[in-house]
């Protein structure tokens, strides 16, 4: 059921692999090789070493970092898809994730195909300091490169998408889509309330609230997401609509031949 709870319609978190399987035709795609970066550039340590946190996240998710890129077909059309996995250190944006987004954008320009990103993040990766924050302008320049090539850039905001990711590539899409109930914002609601000293309205920073106030374009149920993305890609690339598969021909009824009663008698045994 694509990780949607039937009774409440609550959209559970999806891993990067599960997301890619749900988008590409026949659950088949090419994994895009991503550039290697320095694992712990600042030799950072808080309660634990940053290098140990990275090792644990890799063992937990099977990913090298928070973003996975795939290239394949969506309803017959070639697309590049980037997926952020929140289970990898909260989907935080560090150097490796920034390089992944830039590489995906470069590949989309190279293949002349749309670029789709599924954002899920708590923000910039603080263990990488200013090197993490530098990914905001880098990814923004990458999006501009795609825009200059006149190729579609579609963003799907999932729960949650916050911090530096919201402040960069996650809010620059040609079409901004969100899953139902997704938390989307920059600073947390508690910080905002303390800053403005006012009570925030119900549903603040949720997908439906942002749609009603013009910050995103549409809220799409996960079951409808794949055809919606395919339709938008066709629209923005001026591609012809996909022809529906031909219906199978109705079986022709052939009347049974009339056999004389004498012919229906059993044949005599052979000598």
Q: Which characteristics define this entry?
A:
2-enoyl-CoA Hydratase, Chain A, domain 1; 271 residues; alpha/beta; globular
Task: Summarize this entry quickly.
The chain is α/β, with parallel strands linked by helices and 271 residues long. It has helices at 16-23, 50-61, 95-111, 129-133, 135-148, 163-166, 189-196, 207-212, 222-236, and strands at residues 29-31, 67-74, 77-84, 115-121, 153-161, 175-178, 218-219.
Q: Any idea what the shape is?
A: globular
**Name of the top-level CATH class:** Alpha Beta
Report how far the terminal alpha carbons are from each other: 66 Å
What is the CATH fold-level name?
2-enoyl-CoA Hydratase, Chain A, domain 1
Poorly predicted regions are none
For the largest beta-sheet, the strand count, sense and barrel status come to: 7 strands, mixed
Proportion in helices: 25-40%
Q: Into which percentage range does the β-strand content fall?
A: 15-25%
Number of domains: 1
The name of the CATH architecture is Alpha-Beta Complex
- DSSP strand count: 7
Describe the structure in your own words.
This protein is α/β, with parallel strands linked by helices and 271 residues long. It has a single domain (16-264), classed as Alpha-Beta Complex (2-enoyl-CoA Hydratase, Chain A, domain 1). The chain is 33% helix and 15% strand. It has helices at residues 16-23, 50-61, 95-111, 129-133, 135-148, 163-166, 189-196, 207-212, 222-236; strands at 29-31, 67-74, 77-84, 115-121, 153-161, 175-178, 218-219. The chain has a 7-stranded mixed sheet, sandwiched between helices. Helix 3 packs parallel to helix 5 (135-148). The longest helix is centred in the middle third of the chain and has 17 residues, at 95-111. The protein is globular, with a radius of gyration of 26 Å. The mean pLDDT is 91.
